[in-house]
Amino acid sequence: MSIKNHIIKISKPTLLTILAIVLIPVMSVSAATLGTLRRWSSDWNQVGRWGSTVSTIPTSIYISKLNSSGTFYFASGMDSGISKWNSAMGISMKSVAYVSGSVPVLYYGGTISQINALGITTLTAGTTGYNKITSTNEGAWAFGSYLYSGMKMSKDIGFIVDRGAYDSSVYVNTCMHELGHTIGWIGHAPSNTDVMYAYNDLINLTLTLTDKDQVLQVYGK
Ligand SMILES: [Zn+2]
Predict the structure, then answer these.
(1) Ligand 1 centroid to residue 85 C-alpha, Å
(2) 3-class SS at 135?
(3) How far is the CA of 181 from the centre of ligand 1 (A)?
(4) What's the 206 CA to ligand 1 centre distance in angstroms?
(5) Mind listing the pLDDT tens digit for each residue in 7-61?
(6) Cβ(184)–Cβ(89) below 8 Å
(7) Minimal CA–CA distance to 85: which of 200, 183, 187, 188?
(8) Which residues of 47-79 are buried (b: 16+ CB within 10 A; e: fewer)?
């Protein structure tokens, strides 16, 4: 695939929704029980984590590819995304082929119809990635005079949508974004230069300070 084709192909779509997270409703909070934050970058009032240190982030990211399309760079996209978050967070996630059974983090890759046929969620046209996170409220974080809810995560099922013949960088970007939610990002970052921006109109392949720091701080880093 030539560079020119690549540019044409990624410039055609209008803004594509990357994700809407399924969330347990916000609890009211009255005191900062979890600590003080140094920044708040999300458009949502929650931040998630698996535990108090990065060592609690699941190291095995199970992946299941629902189709055999060679132009759907799901596995390599996940590996690239995992590598970038590993460097940013100082962690050692790795992708593992999913067989069966209950696992904390599982990603499916396939077309929207293949994903919807799983009966786990119903994605709408235009969705490029999605995370279904199970979490419970563990208390409140303080940022200035604001309080934000801390969500303790216990399970995450991610979905990466096969959008046809796109350059692998498109899937790397989507996987990076979704893995940010897996680590604890709830809501989205404000700038279209952030990987955690809600739309992938730009194919950002570098995690910004905003991308990293929003989650690093809740893991005590
Ligand atoms: Zn998202």
Answers:
(1) 15
(2) strand
(3) 7
(4) 16
(5) 222 333 334 444 545 554 444 446 889 999 999 999 999 999 999 999 999 999 9
(6) no
(7) 183
(8) bbbbeeebeebbeebbbebbeeeeebbbbebbb
What class is the 17-219 domain? alpha beta
The residue assigned the tokens 């140094």 is: 38
Domain ranges of the chain: 17-219
Instruction: Using alpha carbons, select from 96, 95, 113, 99 the residue that is nearest to residue 162.
Output: 113
Q: 99-157 pLDDT, tens per residue?
A: 999 999 999 999 999 999 999 999 999 999 999 999 999 999 999 999 999 999 999 99
Cα Dmax for the chain: 56
Rounded to two decimals, the pTM is: 0.87
User: What distances in angstroms separate CA 190 from CA 43, 69, 218, one per listed residue?
Assistant: 7, 34, 19
- Which pair of structure tokens corresponds to residue 74? 């799901």
By residue count, the chain amounts to 221
